[in-house]
Amino acid sequence: MGVIVILIGCSLLVAMGFFAAFLWAVRQGQFEDASTPAIRMLFEPEKPEPDTHADRNLPLR
Amino acid sequence: MEISTAVCTHCGAPCPPAEHFCCAGCRAVYGVLHDATPYDPGDTYAFLDLPDVADRLLKFRGDHLATFVFRVPAIHCSSCVYLLERLSQLDAGFVESRVDFGRKEVSVRFDPERLSLRKAVEWLVRIGYTPQLELDPKADARRSGEARDRWIKLGLAGFAFGNVMLFSLPEYFAPELLDPFLKKVFTTLNLVLSLPVLFISASEFLSGAWTALRHRTVTLDVPIALGILALYGQSLSDILTGGGPGYFDSFTGLIFFLLIGRTMQGKTYEALSFDRSHTSYFPLAANVLGPEGAHPVPLGELAPGDRLFVRHGELIPCDAELESESAQLDYQFVTGESTPVDVARGARLFAGGRVAGAAATVVVRQAASQSYLTELWNRVNGSGPARSSRLRLPDALSPWFTGLVVVLATGAGLWWAQHDAGKALYVVSSILIVACPCALAMAAPFTFGAVRRRYARHGFYTRHASVVEDLANVRTVMFDKTGTLTESRTDALFLGAPLTQPETSALGSVLMQSVHPLSRRVVEAMRPFETLPVADFREEKGHGVMGTVAGNRVVAGSAAWLTRNGIPDLLPGTESAGSQVLVAVGGRYLGVWEIRQDVRPGLSAMMRKLARAGYRLALTSGDSPRQRERLKAALPELGDMRFGQTPAEKWAWVEAERGRGAVCMVGDGLNDAAALRGADVGIAVADDVHAFTPASDAIVDGAALARLPAFLRLARGSVAITAAAYVLSVAYNVVGLSFAVRGELTPLVSAILMPVSSITVIAFATGTTTLLAKWRGL
Questions:
Q1: Rounded to whole angstroms, what are the CA distances from B150 to B164, B345, B734?
Q2: pLDDT tens-digit profile of B320-344?
Q3: pLDDT (tens digit per residue) in B551-567
Q4: Which residue, of B7, B117, B192, B239, is most buried by count of CB atoms within 10 Å of its CB?
């Protein structure tokens, strides 16, 4: 019986992990613009610019 | 075998050695990036250097970083995104730029020490992406915050619903196998999972109901809140008394479905703007003449007595007086009348007039905030119909529905109190639970949502779902003329023997000297031609022009002007539909250019259908009545036709018609803005829906206007579908109530009934609406 409780705990943890990922995505603003990323991913990557990578992840608004 | 080593200059892909680019797209982009087209903005954007203006345009401003978000209607494909996201390659002052393709917006971060706002905007203009500069972009941030909250609430409810359902299933299907300890674990988990749903996800329904009750009204939120509280209260008491597992799965599912409905209802077309007041048409600053020349001053700071320098094509920003000797003004923006008027020194000029021809100096008479248009706008805003995104139909039914439920619950409660007092409270809460109008709340948003999707597919965009409701009630449709019924582009048509190339060059060169709109339209129609030097140019206002090109005298203008200048053998003057420019080269009459505005295709069929459907039709035009007969012949169904109407008269007429039923106003310009706002449904017509349109409830593509009868019929049909969906959901309620009054509403019955009813109502509403739309040809 104890094993069920453990499994339920695990399943809840996994579910909460997904929920946390969802919250993160919403806060990133990923739900606000659903069309541009689809276009952006088709562009050839530019040569890397290491110094701007940090703020590239910050949402603009 | 020869291996090509040449690569595209722009993207580096291999390309034929003789070419420098792999494709035309790369060539174009490279040309723009490397400034192949010289562009000199002059001081058009000098006002952006004013700190006040810059502060109100920027979203954020620090010492090393400033950001702005501008709408750029020209964004239309992936190359646009590519180019606009690489602004930092154009100028190192740009830090980063991001495009929101759906909204047609570009967000730019730049370093104000290396690049001024003015320079940044000039870069955008230079590469062909002229931004729409709008002050105070704060409202936007709030909107996106609300959208995030909605997603989080929805996600939370969905997460809890899924898990709670899993933990509830064993109880339903094999209660005898369930270990008492596990039962306790499941119940506790359900309780914990549903707590945030009650306090976060359900908050808008509870607070909405509270607000409604405080205002002594009953909206749909009230029975929903009653149901939510009954569900939660009953579940808590079940658990605390050990009576059962509670209704937590029904509860979380209910909130999840309700939030889906709300999200559906709140859907907007983000690339379109429905909020433009007349101020959006005006520039942000004007050129004030001071002791040391002209300098830009923000519009809000113009004071009476300031002398303004207004160039060709610029708007007069506030009511003023002419100081130059004479000027030509085009009031099409304000009145709809397309022929420019000549004014002399001292004339009173109104805000919104566009200077045609030579630049004019004007003296400000009234601050911009007190101009005629601003005052009209403020008056209309104060008195027009209430604008709300809330659907009215569900809220109108709510008091009856709520009343019925309360009566039923009290009656059943009293009956049970006499027969089995212990069950009375349980029956009352069962009734409130099962009567919770979840399916009812779904019916209208999903029906109208489906209608809006069909509309959008055919170029008709409504601001809110509630606009569909308003469209169903419309009795009178009023039209503006220029740009609405007629195409906004004018056609110039040459009647006579085809012009030879030298004749075209000579004529074009002379007409190019004139700024009269008729000359300009003929020039546009004749392009391309070779421009030749013109001697002895003379123009007489209202009559015509003449000049000599390569020894040939060119005369163009009215018949009287040509006769006066000795041109024989004019064709007898035909009754013209529009304006005419007669032309002669070398003393010989060649023919006539006719400039006409054509009625949009399909509109006469549209008028017939509208008239047959019983709508009252009227025309309100700011133009002169010279096209009355022609319009009457083309569109005989138009009952009342009024010409020469000022914006205030249009609005007053709409206001008067509203006494006889809901009015739909169809217009396109600034001169219609007040009438659009004052009507129950204001529809703005635009040939490019992403371009500038006045504030309105809906925007229709000019080419789709002919479908208006189908749009209106679908709106009426959708109200009937909503009513049918209500009947369906009430039927479910009756089934549920039959369990509830007998005191047999177990968590299992509730858990099945609630989602089944919601899903069938959603499927019915969406499916029937789509079928109806297809049947109606939409």
A1: 21, 58, 32
A2: 899 888 888 877 777 666 667 778 8
A3: 888 998 888 888 888 88
A4: B117
- Could you report the predicted ipTM of this complex, rounded to two decimals? 0.77
Separation CA B48–CA A13 (nearest Å): 53
A contact set with B (CB within 8 A): 1, 4-5, 8, 12, 15, 18-19, 22-23, 26-27, 29, 31-36, 39-40, 42-44, 52, 55-56, 60-61
Highest mean pLDDT, choosing among A38-42, B244-248, B255-259, B391-395: B255-259
Question: Which chain A positions have a beta carbon within 8 Å of B95's beta carbon?
Answer: 52
Q: What are the structure tokens assigned to B580, written together?
A: 């005419």
Q: Which CATH architecture best describes the domain B491-596?
A: 3-Layer(aba) Sandwich (3.40)
Q: Which residues of A touch B85 (CB under 8 A)?
A: 40
More confident residue, B527 or B162: B162
| CATH 3.40.50.1000 at B465-488+599-696, yes or no | yes
- Neighbouring C-beta atoms of residue B749, cutoff 10 Å: 17
Tokens 């409830």 sit on residue: B697
Listed in sequence order, the DSSP H helices in B174-299 are 180-196, 203-214, 221-240, 248-265
Q: Which residues contact B69 (CB under 8 A, 6 or more apart)?
A: A60, A61, B59, B105, B106, B107, B108, B137, B140
CATH class of the domain at B46-136 = alpha beta
Burial B318-350 (b: 16+ CB within 10 A, else e): bbbebbbeebbbbbbbbbbbbebeebeeeeebb
Q: How many helices (H) and strands (E) does chain A have?
A: 3, 0
In angstroms, the CA B437 to CA B769 distance is: 21
Whether B146 and B267 have beta carbons less than 8 Å apart is answered as no
Q: Tell me, what's the pLDDT at A54?
A: 46
Give dist(CA B665, CA B673) in Å, integer: 10
CA dihedral B235→B236→B238→B242, nearest 10 degrees, is: 140
Chain B residues within 8 Å of chain A (Cβ atoms): 11, 59, 67, 69, 78, 81-82, 85, 95-96, 98-103, 107, 109, 140-141, 144, 147-148, 151-152, 155-156, 159, 162-163, 167, 179, 181-182, 185, 189
> What are the residue ranges spanned by the domains of chain B?
1-38, 46-136, 143-266+393-446+717-775, 465-488+599-696, 491-596
